[in-house]
Specification:
This protein is of the alpha+beta class. It has a domain at about 5-70. About 40% of the residues lie in helices and about 10% in strands. It has 4 helices and 2 strands; from the N terminus they run βαβααα. It has helices at about 15-30, 40-45, 50-60, 80-90, and strands at about 5-10, 30-35. Strands 1-2 form a two-stranded parallel sheet. It is elongated, with a radius of gyration of 21 Å.
């Protein structure tokens, strides 16, 4: 294996998964593959197979389970918003909004 790393993303085109996994296996012989699956690809069972089976195969091929599953966006706190902080600071200085 060489030092090249590849992020291998899969979305919900379930009919292509068998061909895609075949290509992933070929690439994994040479490259460090990081699997990435959309929420749908990682959770929907279809007539082409069960999501848990695809996840298991991908984990076996890549040797890791990274980026598989639902992305959970963290809630942004108002104090974390730089624009809100700037507006608050301007208001404290008596500068109105434009």
């Amino acid at each position: 294996m060489n030092n090249i790393k590849i992020g291998f993303a899969m979305c919900g085109s379930f009919c292509t998964f068998e061909k895609v996994l075949s290509e992933m296996e070929k690439l994994a012989q040479t490259y460090d593959i990081t699997p990435i699956m959309s929420e749908g690809a990682s959770s929907i069972d279809s007539r082409f197979g069960k999501s848990e089976d695809f996840i298991r195969r991908i984990t076996e091929i890549c040797g890791k389970r990274y980026g598989i599953g639902t992305y959970k966006k963290t809630e942004k706190k108002p104090e974390d918003d730089p624009l809100a902080a700037l507006a608050k600071r301007a208001a404290e200085m008596g500068i109105g909004e434009l």
